[in-house]
Write a structure and sequence with these properties.
The protein is α+β, with helices and mostly antiparallel strands. The chain contains three helices and seven strands; from the N terminus they run H-H-E-E-E-E-E-E-E-H. It has a six-stranded antiparallel barrel with strand order 2-3-4-7-6-5. The longest helix has 11 residues, at about 100-110. It is globular and about 35 Å long. The relative contact order is 0.19.
């Protein structure tokens, strides 16, 4: 299979690359620096130095420039899976639990690119 065919799967068509240095707050209140990788209407994936358990609840705070200022968007999430991915750390896929209207607008603007 050619590499172009590999990237044109329906799942990939529903995600957009979105690379942001962010903060993850786990259910114990501990804060970790993570790096988002992509986003979709239903969740996001990120790279972290720590492995998270499936089902774990967390918040991800993502800084985004809006207009002339920096705004931090907070996403309430559940860990779908987390696995070691070489030197990048643990790739962690998250499912959104609730998405406020302002976050939906942000996601839709990223998806429209």
């Amino acid at each position: 299979m050619s590499s172009s065919g590999y990237y044109n799967t329906p799942i990939d068509m529903n995600r957009r690359s979105w690379h942001k240095k962010s903060q993850l707050v786990d259910s114990a209140g501990m804060q970790y620096t993570v790096f988002t990788n992509d986003i979709s209407l239903t969740g996001m994936s990120l790279f972290a130095d720590k492995q998270y358990k499936s089902g774990q609840i967390c918040n991800v705070e993502v800084p985004v420039f809006v207009g002339s200022g920096l705004r931090k968007y907070r996403f309430n999430c559940r860990v779908v899976f987390s696995s070691l991915c070489g030197m990048k750390g643990f790739r962690t896929n998250l499912e959104f639990l609730e998405v406020p209207p302002e976050n939906k607008s942000l996601i839709q603007s990223v998806m429209a690119r």
